[in-house]
Structure formats: structure tokens, C-alpha cells
């Protein structure tokens, strides 16, 4: 009898010790049962919870057996069966876990498709830093893949997505590794009306959201409406959190939408997120959240729903990598024709039409070409921007807002050809078989074409020489395109804003390159050139602020 009682006590104590030692606590599997993303996780949770229920049954049976033994002096062996079952099951679960954890990790194969990363079996790497790129690796890869899919769906037929640059490929490979080996978190999305729900694998691509923190084993995200305002209170020391929030928001809105960051009268930060299409929301198309930073603590309060959570750890280097990846995604679409036949411009052009600032036509030696008639200069400017349709009638309509005589227009064309021949006698004008066209010599290029060529070379081969060429091309920016020229056709056709966009893209690429190699002077140069074309541009100012913060930290 004593032996039976001792054996039952050992089994009753050994079962929970075995389960707890192997990490199979009831709290963990109750939460896993509610948050299970797959059927295998649900079955695993039910199995472990069943072992705990059998153990409870065994404890109750053992207590009843001991009481019966006190009355009759005999212990019934049948009452010990639940404890035997619970102990055997706990030992089996522990053995399986020990065998799984002792397996060799094996080699890691980096695959190109982001979709293969999601749902794979993983082995946690305890050496991974607990930073935003580690915690959100799966979310970021999904968002990149979703953005590419959206861009291709909305693009015209025959459009392709260019391969990523070497820098972005390294970032994506790092995200793929982290997504496999970082601990898996379930995700709960909150909306402005304080409602929330756990999202499964199928819903992740359908909900516009921004992850902001961690609550236990859950990743907490805010559901976005068509226009969402996130106010951050306690702005002192909030720069890392604001940088992270802005970078994630720009990744979400890179296809359609935009993000603006402002300071209100109270000194708090407002991040406004505008979606191009309405996101899933249980409220109206406008929504707002308030986030209160808890001093130096990593805890934040989110209202609604009045939730205290841990903020996602931020890292300035990772923020720069995320911004680089986001910016590049908006410039990777191209047609098949452009991929096979890039725009090639002679390194030594006979004449350069400078559009990025006041209009100037310069020779190969840098001297300016003068025209007797200002309309001849304007006609040359129009022709180099309309190489695909250099029609006489279209040019006359663009340059004059009234009807002009044929002789007047012919004089303008003659002066144009005379000035070019004087500057470069070797230039030959192509013969137009159709008299309705005015063909421009191939040796005449624009500074915008030179800029586009340099940027194209960098995107396809980011060598140091190509970056230097882009630096030289950016240095040609002298101000707002067509500055001082009263060309109505330029604004009417949207050419001014189109050239400004090309300048800003090139300056941003160059600034991010210099930021990545810690060249503060290069960042200031690139951003100052961008601000020449578009004064007060928020992105240029933010890039300058990043290098200022980095320099201050190094000096400290």
C-alpha cells in the first residue's frame, strides 16, 4: 500500500514538472488555441491541454483513493490509471521535444520568392537582435510582394519589374532569414471604434494596417482607413518612434497614397496616412489614433482602445534600409523595350540643352550658344522634348497662341539651323522625308536625358564609377526647370512637374547612397540640389535631418 501511494505521489508531481520543464504550460496552449493560425497548431494545443486534464483527473482520483484507503485499508489500482496515463503522455511529449531540439539546424537556402517564406517550418535563432526588422520580417516581405503585385496589376501591358539593386537584394535576403528564424507572433488589428480581431494568413493581404507594438505573444497593428491620423504625444525623445512609423507608413502607401508628418500647436507629432484606395475599416473613411509615449520606458498607450503595450524596438540603420527599399520600389517598373534598349547618350554631346534651371544651350566646351531670335531657342527646346512627334503644325501651335505666317515660322527654323551649324559645322541635319517634320540632330541632348542615363546605369550596376556619374549629372541642377522662360506649353503639358520628379528621384537616390556610406557632405550636396528644384521638399529635409542626427551622435 505504501509503495502504491509513493508511486502515485511521484507521478502526480512528476507530470507537471515534466510538462513545465519542456515549456508545455497550460497558459501557453490556451492562448495558442485561441490564436492558432493552422490546424496543426490547434491539434497540438488540444493534445497538450488534454494531458493536463488527464493529470487533473488523476489528482482527483488519487485523493479519492487515499480517502478510501483510510476507511478500508486497501488502495484500488484502477484509481491510479489516470496518473499513469498523464505521466506517460508527459514523458512522451518531453522526449519528442528533446529529439526535435537536438536536431542539427542544417543549411539555409535563400530563395527568391517571398511567398515561400510564409508558412515554412522554422527553427528559432536566439542570436537574432530584437529589432523592428526582425519582429516584422514576415510583414515586410508580405508588403513588398503585395506592392509589386499591385503595381504590376495597375500598370500597362508589357510592363516589367526591374531586378532589385545589390543593396536591396541584401536587405531582402536578411528579411527572408529573419522571417524563418525569428519567433512567430500572432497579429491582432485594432480599429478606431475599439474593435479588434486576430487576423489569419488569408486575411493579411486584405487589410491595410501598421504594426506599432507587441502585447505578449501578439503583434498589435492599427487598421487604416482612407485617411488616418496618428497623433504621437510626448514628442520629446519620440524621434526614433516617429521615424519608424513614417517608414512603415510609406512602405504601405508606396503604390497609391502618401504620408505627411507635421507638428501641431501643442508640440505633438501628427502622422497623416492617405490611402489611394479605401482600406478595410469598421468606421468612416477618416479615423484617428492617439499614442502616448511613457517617458524613457518602451511602453506606449494607444487610444483607442486604451491599450498599454511595448513599442517595437527601432534602429536608425534599419530605418535607413527600410526607406531605401521603399524608395526603390516606386521606381522599378519599366517596359520590355526600355529593358532591352536603354537610353544611351554620348558622353561628349555636341550641344546640351539645359532644362534644369534657366534655359541654356551650351557647346561641348561649355560656352553658351546664342540665337538671334528667342523663338529659335524655344523651338529647339520644344523639339528635344518632342522627338517622337516633331511636327511643324504642332510646334507652331505650341509656340504661338495666335496664327503666324509661314514665312515667320520658316525664319525661326532657318535661324535655328544657322546657329547650330555655326557652333558645330560637322553636325548634319537629317533629311525629313515628310516635310511636316523638323528632325533634330542626334548630337543634341538635354541635361535631363543625361540625368536619366546616369540614374539608369546606377540602377543596373551600382558601381562607384556610376555613382560618380550620377553625382556629376545631379550637379547640373541649377533651379526650377524652365526658370525665367515664359513657356506656356511646358506647364500645359506638365513637363515642368515631370522634370522636377526626375530630379527629386535622382537626388534621393544619390542622398541615400551617401547616407549608406556615411558621407555627410555628399548627403548635403544631393539634398541641396533637390531643394534647388523644389524648395521646402519634405523628403529632402528629412534626409538632411537624418545626417544631422547621425553626426550629432558621432560627435557625442
Q: Descriptors for this entry?
A:
single chain; 556 residues; alpha+beta; Arc Repressor Mutant, subunit A; 3 domains; ten-stranded mixed beta sheet; elongated
Structural overview:
By secondary structure, the chain is an alpha+beta fold. The protein folds into three domains: 2-101, no CATH class; 131-324, no CATH class; 340-556, Arc Repressor Mutant, subunit A (Orthogonal Bundle). It is 50% helix and 14% strand. The chain has helices at 2-21, 26-35, 39-72, 81-101, 132-135, 137-154, 166-181, 239-252, 316-329, 336-340, 374-385, 392-399, 406-423, 447-460, 464-474, 488-492, 495-516, 520-533, 538-555; strands at residues 159-161, 186-190, 196-199, 209-215, 218-223, 227-233, 257-263, 269-275, 286-293, 299-303, 307-311, 333-335, 351-354, 360-363, 444-446. A hairpin with a 5-residue loop joins strand 2 (186-190) and strand 3 (196-199). Mean pLDDT is 75; it is low at 98-122, 278-283, 335-347 and 551-556.
Amino acid at each position: 500500500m505504501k509503495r502504491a501511494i509513493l508511486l502515485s505521489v511521484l507521478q502526480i508531481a512528476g507530470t507537471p514538472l515534466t510538462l513545465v520543464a519542456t515549456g508545455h504550460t497550460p497558459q501557453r496552449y490556451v492562448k495558442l488555441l485561441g490564436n492558432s493560425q493552422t490546424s496543426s497548431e490547434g491539434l497540438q494545443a488540444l493534445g497538450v491541454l488534454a494531458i493536463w486534464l488527464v493529470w487533473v483527473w488523476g489528482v482527483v482520483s488519487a485523493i479519492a483513493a487515499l480517502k478510501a484507503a483510510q476507511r478500508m485499508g486497501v488502495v484500488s489500482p484502477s484509481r491510479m490509471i489516470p496518473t499513469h496515463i498523464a505521466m506517460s503522455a508527459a514523458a512522451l511529449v518531453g522526449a519528442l521535444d528533446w529529439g526535435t531540439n537536438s536536431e542539427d539546424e542544417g543549411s539555409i537556402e535563400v530563395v527568391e520568392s517571398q511567398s515561400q517564406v510564409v508558412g515554412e517550418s522554422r527553427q528559432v535563432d536566439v542570436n537574432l537582435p530584437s529589432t523592428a526588422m526582425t519582429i516584422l520580417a514576415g510583414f515586410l516581405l508580405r508588403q513588398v510582394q503585395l506592392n509589386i503585385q499591385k503595381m504590376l496589376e495597375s500598370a500597362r501591358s508589357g510592363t516589367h519589374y526591374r531586378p532589385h539593386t545589390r543593396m536591396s537584394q541584401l536587405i531582402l535576403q536578411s528579411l527572408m532569414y529573419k522571417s524563418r528564424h525569428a519567433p512567430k507572433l500572432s497579429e491582432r488589428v485594432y480599429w478606431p471604434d475599439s474593435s479588434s480581431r486576430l487576423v489569419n494568413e488569408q486575411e493579411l493581404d486584405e487589410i491595410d494596417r501598421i504594426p506599432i507594438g507587441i502585447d505578449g505573444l501578439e503583434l498589435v497593428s492599427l487598421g487604416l482607413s482612407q485617411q488616418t491620423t496618428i497623433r504621437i504625444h510626448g514628442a520629446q525623445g519620440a524621434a526614433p518612434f516617429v521615424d519608424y512609423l513614417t517608414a512603415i507608413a510609406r512602405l504601405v502607401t508606396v503604390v497609391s497614397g502618401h504620408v505627411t508628418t507635421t507638428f501641431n500647436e501643442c508640440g505633438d507629432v501628427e502622422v497623416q496616412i492617405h490611402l489611394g484606395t479605401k482600406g478595410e475599416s469598421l468606421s468612416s473613411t477618416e479615423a484617428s489614433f492617439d499614442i502616448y509615449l511613457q517617458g524613457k520606458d518602451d511602453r506606449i498607450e494607444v487610444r483607442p482602445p486604451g491599450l498599454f503595450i511595448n513599442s517595437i524596438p527601432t534602429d536608425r540603420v534599419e530605418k535607413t534600409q527600410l526607406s531605401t527599399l521603399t524608395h526603390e520600389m516606386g521606381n522599378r517598373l519599366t517596359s520590355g523595350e526600355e529593358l532591352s534598349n536603354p537610353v544611351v547618350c554620348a558622353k561628349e554631346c555636341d550641344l546640351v540643352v539645359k532644362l534644369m534651371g534657366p534655359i541654356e544651350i551650351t557647346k561641348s566646351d561649355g560656352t553658351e550658344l546664342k540665337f538671334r531670335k528667342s523663338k529659335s531657342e524655344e523651338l529647339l527646346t520644344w523639339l528635344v522634348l518632342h522627338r517622337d512627334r516633331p511636327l511643324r503644325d504642332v510646334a507652331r501651335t505650341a509656340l504661338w497662341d495666335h496664327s503666324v505666317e509661314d514665312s515667320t515660322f520658316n525664319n525661326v527654323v532657318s535661324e535655328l539651323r544657322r546657329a547650330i551649324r555655326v557652333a558645330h559645322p560637322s553636325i548634319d541635319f537629317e533629311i525629313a522625308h515628310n516635310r511636316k517634320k523638323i528632325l533634330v540632330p542626334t548630337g543634341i541632348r538635354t541635361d535631363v536625358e543625361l540625368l536619366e542615363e546616369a540614374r539608369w546605369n546606377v540602377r543596373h550596376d551600382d558601381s562607384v564609377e556610376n555613382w560618380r556619374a550620377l553625382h556629376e549629372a545631379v550637379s547640373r541642377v541649377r533651379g526650377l526647370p524652365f526658370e525665367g522662360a515664359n513657356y506656356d506649353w511646358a506647364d500645359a503639358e506638365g513637363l515642368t512637374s515631370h522634370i522636377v520628379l526626375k530630379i527629386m528621384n535622382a537626388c534621393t537616390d544619390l542622398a541615400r547612397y551617401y547616407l549608406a556610406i556615411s558621407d555627410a557632405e555628399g548627403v548635403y550636396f544631393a539634398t541641396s540640389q533637390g531643394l534647388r528644384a523644389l524648395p521646402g521638399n519634405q523628403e529632402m529635409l528629412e534626409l538632411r535631418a537624418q545626417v544631422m542626427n547621425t553626426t550629432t551622435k558621432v560627435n557625442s
